Amino acid sequence: MVSDMIPYADILIWLVPIIIAALSPFIAKISRTAVFALSIASVTTSFICAVSMIPDILAGYATYSPGRVLGEIPFDHEFVWIDLAKIVRSSINLGFLIDPLSVFMANIVSFIALWIFVFSIYYMGEEVDIGRYWFWMNLFVGSMILLVLSNNLLQMFISWELVGLCSWGLISFWYKSTAPSPDPRFATEGEYNAHCGFKALVTTGFADTFFLVAILMIGWVTWRVYGAPIFSFTRLMADQELKWIGELARLGLLPVFTLFILSGPFGKSAQFPYHEWLPEAMAGPTTVSALIHAATMVKAGVYFVARFFPIMLEATNYYPQAKMFFLIVAYIGAFTAFLAASQGMVARELKKVLAYSTISQLGYMFLALGVAGLIIHHEHAYLYGLYHLASHAVFKALLFLAAGAILHTVHTKYLDEMGGLAKYMPITFWTMLMGALSLMGIPPFSGAFSKEGIIAASYESGNMILFLLAVVTVALTAFYTIRMIGYVFFGKESEHVKHIIEEHGIREKSISMVLPLIVLAASTVILSILGPAIFEFIEHGTLSHAFEPANILTYFLETLSSRTFFISGALIVVGLVPSYYAFVKQTIDVKKLMEKSIVLRAIWKFLYNRWYINKAYYVIFVDGVKGVSQVLRRIQTGISNVNIAYAVAGIVILLILVLI
Amino acid sequence: MTVLPIQVYFALCFAIYAIGIYTLIAKRNVLRMILAIELMLAAANMTFVVVSYWFSPGVIDPLVRSIVIISMAVGSIVAALAVSLTILVYRVFKTRDVRKLSKLKW
Q1: C-alpha distances in angstroms, A215 versus A218, A222, A233, A610?
Q2: What pLDDT score was predicted for residue A69?
Q3: Are A133 and A127 in contact (CB under 8 A)?
């Protein structure tokens, strides 16, 4: 059969952005226009390559279904990268797995990246250091797609760290800024930004250490069982009975392994207990927040769990202990969804509201994947989790870009310094409203259908804790979304906004900023129709029934008439109504209410301080390490006699250890 | 020419090395410490020669000889550099005592 894929599409798709990344600092010295154009050309290439992979999947090369081992996949090919045949009878490979799941992800990543790059043209237009910006952005797109297409764990881990590095470089992008710092601990905003980037790097790096240990555990245990380390996803599943998981269970390492392998995804996707880095990550440019910290990089954790899902599901048939994997994912996901949504209700910065909301929605995706392993209709919850991934990627990118347009216009990130912008920026208002409605889960926007599926699945699991956390979060989501919209677009203009209107006037700025908003807003509506198509594509690798109107209509009616839809609908109203009167109509005076009630003030303080988790982390990890090093530094005397004595003592101890 | 037992040579090497270590730990004068480093280097070179003789008695290994000669040359350069640094340090800080040269300490 002739392949429809562009020749070498699986390599070009990530290599082109990486090459452009390497060139862009030099090109930026010559021409700013050229570097913008080349970056957009490179991401367009990626997008075309990603789209060209779809027909091949449809032609039936690969079939995939949760709970079933992958069939013949001609598109799982690999090259030997580092040959270790003499040492461990294996090699480190560079390989690409092109199956419906990875093609689905690659399409989302390159589609979102394309529109965010277009948005960057104007948004970063006045930036001096444009070469550095495009270096990190292009490198990010390349390594993210490399991550998605990886066919083995080692290559995935390498690209996993690469995207983390890009995240660090872009969060602390404005490290030279001399504006006053939002945090009193730092002298300038630049220092604060650098700290935020470093915090993200350290938190995810801490989580990834455990992840790496788990990956090496897989290599070690497969070496014991099969005689050679195996890291490839397909070959890990090739053994019908998954003896390597049995070996782990026999050795009593399965709980440790489960915790460690989940540590990486939880760190990257900002789930409890690693969620504290994401709100700070908003220090970077808004395009970065949209691309990396909302739409793509933070989905890597969800993607990994989805990729690992069939292995663990198959394992539960033989080793019931493996069910722990799904329980942890479901509980952590549900709890994080609630935790972050509650913090989003009181956030003072526009982008932080969106950041908390991202953590919360990622929690929903983990909840879906976890619940999928616990119920009989695995594929139902699994597919809804991935559908929510797609719809969230679109509407959250839209919300962030709209926020970027607002920040670029009003030059403040605080919600209480905005207000009344609806009549000045109508396109931004309407598109952001569409994103917000999608986030709240109001049809006909895609968020309604995807979130509804997750809530239905958690209801089906019969676990009331998970279900309650999921539906309560719906109310909180409605509350903070409407609060955000109300603060930004309704009410009276603040002094700050009035000042800006007098000076420059407020209007929609550029076609390059408005066009991505419109495209993404349209996509969030279109995605709700594409639901059945995504399900069929990921489950069977076909699209034959997906576009029949009868099919779509049944899907709509089934979703909109389900029992859980009415429950979550009621809770949306519960969250929406007080928020509407307090922040949009402003008939309830929030300030007076806060002054009167001591309970509300206490709750506000608790939530605003992020449940004190952030503070606790600083006390334990930052101050703790500082305290220990204050004691330990006394052994550093600075006298060379003493240092040599230490060296001699070390040699003596080493000799004793070796000789005994 | 009589050849002493090999242990005598090893003992001598170790003794020279120990003197060097002792000087480095106990003495404060920078020049003494440089001399100690040179002593330790000599001990190491000598060990190398003795080991080569031990492995193949009666044969002079040209590889070992050339390596040791290079090592001695390098050692003398190191000594020259160290002495010149000491002179500079003395000009700036007016001391040869290493315990007073601890400005980089926290």
Answers
A1: 5, 11, 12, 32
A2: 39
A3: yes
pLDDT at A606 over 70: yes
Residues 6+ apart with CB under 8 A from A44: A114
Residue with structure tokens 């029934």? Answer: A545
Tell me how far apart the terminal alpha carbons of chain B are, to the nearest angstrom: 58
For residues A333 and A271, the answer to whether their CB atoms sit within 8 Å is: yes
- Give the whole-angstrom CA distance, residue A401 versus residue A427: 12
> Which residue out of B39, B99, B100, B101 would a mutagenesis test of the A interface target, given it has the greatest number of A Cβ atoms within 10 Å?
B99
Q: Which residues share a beta bridge with A292?
A: none
Q: Which amino acid is at A579?
A: S
- Write b or e for each residue in A495-525: b if 16 or more Cβ atoms lie within 10 A of its Cβ, otherwise e: ebbeebeeeeebebbeebbbebbbbbbebbe
Phi-psi region of A588 (alpha: psi -120 to 50; beta: other; left: phi over 0): beta
Q: A328-364 as b/e, with b when 16 or more CB fall inside 10 Å?
A: bbbbbbbbbbbbbbbbbbbbebbbbbbbbbbbbbbbb
Q: What is the ipTM of this complex?
A: 0.84
Q: Is A638 in contact with B25 (Cβ distance < 8 A)?
A: no
Helix (H) or strand (E) holding A81: strand A76-84
- Residues A647 and A149: their CA atoms lie apart, in Å, by 48
From the list A58, A51, A49, A47, the residue with the least C-alpha distance to A546 is: A58
> Distance (Å) from the C-alpha of residue B26 to the closest C-alpha of chain A?
7
Here the tokens at position A474 are 């719906």
Tokens of A185: 């601990």
A442 — phi, psi (to 5°)?
A: -110, 125
All residues of chain B having their beta carbon less than 8 Å from the beta carbon of residue A636 are: 105-106
Summarised one tens digit per residue, pLDDT across range A221-235 is 999 998 888 888 888
**CB-CB under 8 Å, A641 with B102:** no
Chain A: nearest CA to B72, how far in angstroms? 23
Task: Evaluate if pTM is beyond 0.90.
Answer: no
How far is B104 from B106, CA to CA, in rounded Å?
Answer: 6
Of A349, A336, A346, whose CA–CA distance to A282 is shortest?
A349
Q: Distance between CA atoms of A148 and A143, rounded to whole angstroms?
A: 9
Q: Tell me whether residues A638 and B98 touch, CB distance under 8 A.
A: no
Q: What single letter denotes the amino acid at residue A506?
A: I
Q: How far apart are the first and last CA of chain A?
A: 66
Does the bond joining A273 to the residue before it have cis omega, within 30 degrees of 0? yes
Q: CA of B69, closest CA in chain A: separation in Å?
A: 27
Residue from B17, B34, B97, B106 to probe the interface with A (highest A Cβ count within 10 Å): B106
Q: Please answer yes or no on whether B25 and A639 come within 8 Å at the CB atom.
A: no
Share of chain A above pLDDT 90, in %: 55
- Largest Cα–Cα distance of chain B, in whole Å? 58
Give the mean pLDDT of chain A. Answer: 89
Look at residues A26, A18, A24 and name the one whose alpha carbon lies nearest to residue A38: A24
Yes or no: say if A270 and A278 are a contact pair by the CB < 8 Å rule.
yes
Task: Tell me whether residue A440 is exposed, middle or buried, using C-beta atoms within 10 angstroms of its C-beta: 0 to 12, 13 to 18, 19 or more.
Answer: buried
The tokens describing B20, both together, are 């060097």
B27, B28, B105: residue with CB nearest A638:
B105
From the CB of residue A136, how many other CB atoms can be counted at a distance below 10 Å? 23
Tokens of A214: 């788990």
CB contact set of A600 (below 8 Å; sequence gap of 6+): A593, A594
**Residue A146 is which amino acid?**
L
pLDDT over 80 (residue A65): no
Helices and strands, counts by H and E, chain B: 3, 0
